[in-house]
Amino acid sequence: MILSRNPIPANESERLDALNSYHILDTLPEKDYDAINRLAAYICQTPVSLITFIDADRQWYKANIGLPNNEIARSETFCRYTIMSDEVLEVPDARQNELFADNPAVVDGWVRFYAGVPIIDNEGYRLGTICVVDTVPRNLTVEQKDALVTLAHEVVSHLTLRKQKRELEESLKLHNEFFNLFNNSPEIHCVMDRTTRIQLINDSVTRILGYTPLEAIGHPIWYFFPKGDRDHLLKIVEDGLRNKKKSYELETRIITRTGEIKWVSWSVIAKKENWYASGRDITYQKKVVAELEQLSLVASKVSNGVVISDANNKVVWVNDAFEKITGYHLEDVEGNALGDKIKGELTDVSIIHKARELSKNKQSFEVDLLMYRKDGQPIWISVINSIILDQFGNIDKYVEVIIDITAKKKAEHELISAKEEAVQLNRAKDMFISVMSHEIRTPLNAVIGISHLLMEDNPNESQKENLKILKFSADNLMTLINDVLDFTKIETGNIELEKIPVDLRELVDGVVNSMQFKAKGKNVYLKAQVDESLPENIIGDKTRICQILLNLVGNSVKFTDKGGVTIDLKVIEQTNNEVRIRFEVSDTGIGIAADKINTIFESFKQADANITRLYGGTGLGLAITKRLVELHDSRINVESTYGQGSKFWFTITFNKSADTLKTKTQAVEIGLKLNILVVDDNQINRLLIDKVLKKWGVNADFAENGRQALEKIEARGDYDVVLMDIHMPEMGGLEATKVLRAKADTYSQQLPIIALTASMLNNQMGMIGEAGMNDYILKPFNPKDLYDKISKFSKE
Ligand code: ADP
């Protein structure tokens, strides 16, 4: 048989892989292999023995007795032939063997005898040899050969063990790593038997649910579910099993060790006898989702429109309400600036620009805009914008809430026109009252004036009595008109309080004096108590305070038939500049029923239907009083017991006056040297004034209207004073005054003109001044007042 010089096994590449899989090459000496090798040397009685492995190009010695080197080239080995056979290769004398005679080791004399056995692993791969060498020719006995074969098997056993050990170590390492992975997973992993009893569970169960794995193992997983969920989930799994379903995705609630409820999302697989489950804690996500759901429910279902735009102010989302309000759908406005899309002819675009400026500067805004629906209908909307910033503080989104305020705007407009209408109505009412009062006052003026004059004409006793009644009735009528006028003035805000020094003691005395007559007539007392510390003068409106007290005292006297009435002024607080005074009017009269006490301050309201019949009155007095007190920044209070009496009180803070009041010296009516032009269209008035003026020796001339007056002034040019009525036919007093004042000469410009007016409305007073009149006197006038006003123009 001719043998190849470099024989290679047919499966060389796999053989090399197999050799490498033992990881034996180039390892350190090991005593097991050395022992086998030594046995080979003993048994075969050779100086050299080797356990070798044949690598691709070399022969490497795992165990070596007798040789200085560790490896040699494969091409120089005897063993390259040994691994090709299944049996012992014995070369008794290498010099005689043509295959080996030229081998360097043979040539050098190291080797004469060689015997080797292949090491063949359990898979049949020829990995190497166990061989013995001698420097002399010889032969092995059959036993020695058999021993070598046995030792070769022994090597294979060691190799196999080594490989298994290594594989075991690797698998253990892998197992450990898997276990680490298993325990360090953020999810719960568990293995359950077919009854879902937990057999293995990782440490996450402690982190997520608070139970240690030991506490969990042995319990069925349902044990940790809330009761209701348990039945529900069992049913799902049972149904699934019936349909041969092997895997499930479930979300369950779990009760943690502390009793808290957590949400876990499970992936469960059934495999053979076991269940494998992985569970993720989704409590937070559930919460976020629930919140999001709620938020999106709010955003999408509220009745206000919501629009979300990106940082470039382009719409990305709108809710249902927006679509309803504007008629635009998301696809109509998406990618557009909202304002551009829904503006129209009458939209105030400057507001839109301003709003954009603001939002660019990260400022929110709230604006009302007239916009247009998709169908062209104009709508008023209120836009409230919020800016959402990202984590770096840059604009991320804009959220705009859109409220349809069309109805509100309409109502506002209606309200404004209603208000304007009301103002106009009020003006008309003022006008009416002013005209009416003028019309009524003028004849009444005459009645009162004439009765004055008649009283002074030495009437006889019976006439005196009648005249008294006449004057009393006329005065009463005048009070009523004044009340109505007063009330209107207050109601229309036409009243302003005067601020002049007032002596309250004198004022109270005056009130007592003027009512004493009535009280005495009814046989009831009327007294006043004034705090001693009350300052001499305060700054106030004498007429109005007087009016308040007269109203209250008048009522008390009227409604009291036994006992009496007390006026009480108390200083509550006093500083250098201010004094707070409590005014009280109390009586022992008929009182007011509890259920009526709240209505008596309303206009034209009386506590009892019989009041007018029994006591007279209009029901206006307290309404006026209440408002007058309110004008003083106060409130009127009442306490009353039906059948026992009433008590009205209020407190007012006044500034104190530094001046003491000079008591007015009563002007003595001496004769006056005056030429007066009286301008009045009413003949009785002219007659009345003439009578009064004649008494003082005044020269009176008359005109019936403004035009006549101007002609007379022009013609005569020597009047000292003009008494000018306001309302007259042809030309009124105001117009005539204006015409006169417009003339160039000083006489026309400076001639004193005193208005005769029946109106007390503020705007009328203003007009008198504006027209160029110097003063006014109210009709019906008190002759004394007229005397005071004209006497200063007297030439002497
Ligand atoms: P008038 O006195 O003109 O009827 P007022 O407005 O002054 O109108 O008063 C309204 C009503 O309040 C009176 O009609 C009366 O019923 C009741 N009232 C006012 N003051 C008293 C009082 N001192 N005692 C009993 N009742 C009073």
User: CATH superfamily name of the largest domain?
Assistant: Histidine kinase-like ATPase, C-terminal domain
How many separate structural domains? 5
Query: How large, in whole angstroms, is the Cα Rg?
Result: 63 Å
Small molecules bound in the structure, each named once: adenosine-5'-diphosphate
Per the CATH scheme, the topology name of the largest domain is: Heat Shock Protein 90
- Overall helicity: 40-55%
Q: Any idea what the CATH architecture of the largest domain is?
A: 2-Layer Sandwich
Overall pLDDT confidence: 88
Shape assignment: rod-shaped
Structure characterization notes:
The chain is an alpha+beta fold and 796 residues long. Helix content is 43%, strand content 24%. It has five domains: 12-167, GAF domain (Beta-Lactamase, 2-Layer Sandwich); 188-281, Beta-Lactamase (2-Layer Sandwich), CATH 3.30.450.20; 285-404, PAS domain (Beta-Lactamase, 2-Layer Sandwich); 496-656, 2-Layer Sandwich (Heat Shock Protein 90), CATH 3.30.565; 675-791, Rossmann fold. The protein has 25 helices and 28 strands. Helix 15 (461-491) crosses helix 19, helix 17 packs antiparallel against helix 19 (621-631) and helix 21 packs parallel to helix 22. Adenosine-5'-diphosphate is lined by residues 555-556, 559, 587, 589-592, 600, 606-608, 611, 617-623, 646. The site of adenosine-5'-diphosphate (ADP) has 21 residues, from helix 17 and helix 19.
